[in-house]
Design a protein that fits this description.
oxidoreductase; oxidoreductase activity, acting on the CH-OH group of donors, NAD or NADP as acceptor; 2 domains; SDR_fam
């Protein structure tokens, strides 16, 4: 096979992307559609789903709160029916969680962060892995962690805890599922340009009592390339991991971050 062909995901891949109606998830869904995949997304926001479907013809979608196991199971059943099976699971859903000193964090906000960022990954895996085993000969699971899954993140301990946990989950499952020819990797985005990052910067600036612009400059100083990454950078890595070129990559936590040096 031509080396260039190895970089292209196989046509007709059946892909499920959680939280796929906006941000990184939407960029990933669109990239797979451009690569001739069949794509199903879920999202908690019905309006965002309708917008995504109108923008991306051929997209399958369902509404779900990923912290609810029953809703996740319904989504996977629907995706299997609509797609005829599953080849790629992109466990993308996550929230920023609270910003603050650990003694000031509301336990309810801690629990909500764990439920959305970590429990949801387990809910999707528990239901989707049997489908991958049964219906795919090129199965790949891609979990969205964060640069906060390899570095400490002061004042963002709930978020960082979930992202470190995802890296551990991926490495464990790579060993567990390798004999079934299922690859499992995590992507660790860095500072991703966009509205969500602006909200994070604003919350952290408020917590530290400094301006938004000063806080943004502090983030950029921590990046070796002195720039943020884009959602398309993350989507490109996702496509690579699902392509034949990534067929021997598993158990990895891959940073796409311009080399964030510290948080």
């Amino acid at each position: 096979m031509n080396i260039i062909d190895l970089l292209k995901p196989r046509s007709g891949l059946r892909v499920l992307v959680s939280a796929g109606a906006g941000g990184i998830g939407a960029a990933i869904a669109e990239a797979f559609l451009q690569a001739d995949a069949r794509v199903y997304i879920c999202d908690v926001n019905p309006n965002a789903i309708e917008s995504a479907k109108s923008r991306l013809p051929g997209l399958y979608a369902g509404v779900a709160d990923v912290s609810d196991r029953t809703q996740v199971e319904t989504v996977i059943d629907d995706a299997r029916q609509k797609l005829g099976g599953l080849d790629v699971l992109v466990n993308n859903a996550g929230i920023a969680g609270p910003t603050g000193a650990v003694e000031d964090i509301d336990p309810a906000q801690w629990e909500a962060t764990i439920a959305t960022n970590l429990n949801s990954q387990f809910y999707f895996l528990r239901k989707a892995v049997p489908v991958l085993k049964e219906t795919s000969d090129c199965a790949s699971i891609i979990a969205m962690s964060s640069v906060a899954g390899r570095l400490g993140y002061p004042f963002r301990s709930p978020y960082a805890s979930t992202k470190w946990a995802i890296a551990g989950l991926v490495k464990s499952l790579a060993a567990e599922l390798g004999p079934s020819n299922i690859r499992v990797n995590a992507i660790l985005p860095g500072v991703v340009e966009g509205e969500r990052m602006n909200r994070v910067i604003s919350a952290r600036a408020d917590a530290l009592g400094i301006s938004f612009d000063a806080m943004r400059d502090e983030y950029l100083k921590k990046i070796s390339l002195r720039r943020m990454v884009t959602v398309d950078d993350i989507a490109a890595m996702t496509l690579f991991l699902a392509s034949p070129a990534g067929s021997n990559i598993t158990g990895q936590a891959i940073s796409v971050d311009g080399n964030v040096e510290y948080l």
